[in-house]
Amino acid sequence: METGSSRIEHRGVPPLERLVVDASRVALLVVIAAFGAAALLGRTPSLDIQMLIYLVGMVAINLPHGGYEHFTNLRRRGLPFGARYVALYLAFVAGFIAFFLLAPVLALGLAFATAVAKGGHGDLRVMDAQVGSDHLEYRWQRFLAALVRGGAVMIVPLVFWTETFVGFSDYMLALFDPALSVPLASGPDVAITALGGLFALGVVAHLGSGLLIGGASRAWLLDVFETSLLVVFFAVVPVVVAIGLYFPLWYSLRQSARSAAVNRQLEHRDDGLPVGLAWAALVVGALATATVAAVLWVVVPNPLGGLPLLPGLVAFYTIFICIVALPHVVVGEWLDVGRGIWYVP
């Protein structure tokens, strides 16, 4: 048995962090209401506008937060550990780029699985720290919770926005070979219906087991609300906008709140890096990230996939994010048994 108690919450979540978590819920509700109303009025924004929203959300807001997660994870760990961490991260980046060049379809599938893992496991740790996870007493429940929370990010839009989802997946594959397409492109109905059905069963199993084991606790009720909110968000909001806004408005907001709450518990410790070195580390990280993007631009056969500028940039940037997301999760959390980017004391 593995208890998923909300350890920081038991000490009292500070009001500011609680407000940030509430803000993530309100943000998704506002976006749902806006796009739901637009759909009813027949005024859904054009695909070009949706892609601009995606780029603003993912580039201007979410990308800097990803670097900050690694910075806060490493700042107290010392140089020997930090050097190994960075080396391993870069090795995974290089390996994933090579995988995309050799087997783009399989690599894209791994990238989608990584998005599920990032959204699901990251959210699970926020539940541990602030929302409550006392109803998730067993390891298999926690795995199912992460699968459902993360699955909403990929599976729900695939079911409700199949044409756009498959189309943009093909755009991403076109960077490597214009003749490639995702396997679902030729006959998606049966596979997508089955996948959607399995996801629905997963939601029922996750919430049902939480009720049976933990009862109708506050943590379970919040889980029901947040899980339902995510499903509705990805079902109602067009997939390009939904993914572009999910990470800054949900993932990054909630992780920032978790990080702030954790830092309050650690504030008696030395920060590990003077202000000057901390600033330098952030600059070096930003330059390294830009270098990865530049290398990808050089080695990819068709950086814009033969597409017009805007969809080409969206496709290229999404592949770039996929490549840095894999080590973000694997190195930043799963291989870092001492702390990890989603650390909860």
Automatic annotation (TrEMBL):
**What's the top EC group for this one?**
oxidoreductase
Q: Under the cellular component aspect of Gene Ontology, which terms does the record hold?
A: plasma membrane
What's its membrane topology?
A: Multi-pass membrane protein
**Can you name this protein?**
Probable beta-carotene 15,15'-dioxygenase
GTP-binding as a keyword? no
Natural source organism: Halobiforma nitratireducens JCM 10879
Molecular function terms, GO-annotated: beta-carotene 15,15'-dioxygenase activity; carotenoid dioxygenase activity; iron ion binding
Where is it located? Cell membrane
Q: Does the keyword Lipid biosynthesis apply?
A: no
Its EC number is 1.13.11.63
Required cofactor names: Fe(2+)
GO BP term (any one): carotene catabolic process
Q: Which reaction does it catalyse?
A: all-trans-beta-carotene + O2 = 2 all-trans-retinal
Q: What does this protein do?
A: Catalyzes the cleavage of beta-carotene at its central double bond (15,15') to yield two molecules of all-trans-retinal.
NCBIfam families from the entry?
blh_monoox
The UniProt entry's sequence similarity note says: Belongs to the Brp/Blh beta-carotene diooxygenase family.
Q: Which InterPro entries match?
A: Blh_diox
Q: Which residues cross the membrane?
A: 23-42, 49-68, 88-117, 143-162, 190-216, 228-249, 277-300, 307-330
